[in-house]
Specification:
Elements lengths: L1 E4 L6 E4 L2 E4 L2 E4 L4 H6 L8 E7 L5 E7 L7 E7 L1 E8 L10 E7 L5 E4 L3 E7 L4 E7 L8 E3 L20 H4 L17
Antiparallel strand pairs: 1-2, 2-10, 3-4, 5-12, 6-11, 6-13, 7-10, 7-12, 8-9, 8-11
C-alpha cells in the first residue's frame, strides 16, 4: 500500500497494491498497521455506500460539525468520480484551498479526508458507486453544506449543470461560513 501526501497537509492519497493473476486481482484497502504508520490512527465506526444513477451527479460540499466531525476514507468501487476536499481549518496555510482527484473502480485510488475539510464528488459515469469509512456516525444536527459552485472556492468540476439534491441546490455560500474547525486541533 502506497500512502502519499497531497499539496494540502493532512489530506492523503492511498494507492492499494493490487495482486493479480488469471482469476482477477486482490488488494488490501485498509490496514490499521499501514495507516497508523502514515499517521492515520483513527477508529472507523461506520461504512457508507452510495450509488448515483446519472453521470454528472454531484454530492457535496458536505461537512459534519463537532462533536460528530468525521474523518473519511473514500473510494469508488464502480465507475468513476471526481472527488474533492476543501480545507476549512481556521488558521491553516491552505484555508479555502481545494484538492481534486479522479477515483475509479479501475485505478483503485482512495482519498483520506480528515476532519476540517468540506467533501464532495461528481460522478463521471452512470451507476457510480462510492464507499467510504467514517470515524463518527451521521448526526443530522451537525450536518452542513457549502455551495458546490462557490466562486470564492473556485472548483473546476468539469460540469456546470450537475444533478443535485434539494439540500445541495440551496447550500449557502462560503463567504458567510463560520468554520467550527481549527488547524492543528486534535
Amino acid at each position: 500500500m502506497n500512502i502519499e501526501k497531497t499539496p494540502i497537509e493532512g489530506l492523503l492519497m492511498i494507492a492499494p497494491k493490487r495482486h493479480g493473476d488469471a482469476r482477477g486481482w486482490f488488494c488490501e484497502v485498509y490496514s490499521r498497521t499501514a495507516f497508523s504508520a502514515a499517521g492515520i490512527d483513527f477508529e472507523f465506526v461506520q461504512d457508507n455506500h452510495s450509488m448515483s444513477g446519472a453521470s454528472g451527479t454531484l454530492r457535496g460540499l458536505h461537512y459534519q460539525r463537532p462533536p460528530f466531525a468525521q474523518d473519511k476514507l473514500v473510494r469508488c468501487t464502480r465507475g468513476v468520480i471526481y472527488d474533492v476536499a476543501v480545507d476549512v481549518r481556521q488558521g491553516s496555510p491552505s484555508y479555502g484551498k481545494w484538492f481534486g482527484v479522479e477515483l475509479s473502480a479501475e485505478n483503485g485510488l482512495q482519498l483520506f479526508v480528515p476532519v476540517g475539510f468540506l467533501h464532495g464528488f461528481m460522478t463521471r459515469s452512470e451507476g457510480a458507486e462510492v464507499q467510504y469509512k467514517v470515524t463518527a456516525p451521521y448526526a443530522a444536527e451537525c450536518d452542513g453544506a457549502i455551495a458546490w459552485d462557490d466562486p470564492d472556492i473556485g472548483i473546476d468540476w468539469g460540469n456546470t449543470l450537475p444533478v443535485l439534491s434539494a439540500k445541495d441546490a440551496i447550500a449557502p455560500r462560503f463567504s458567510g461560513f463560520q468554520s467550527p474547525f481549527t488547524y492543528g486541533a486534535t
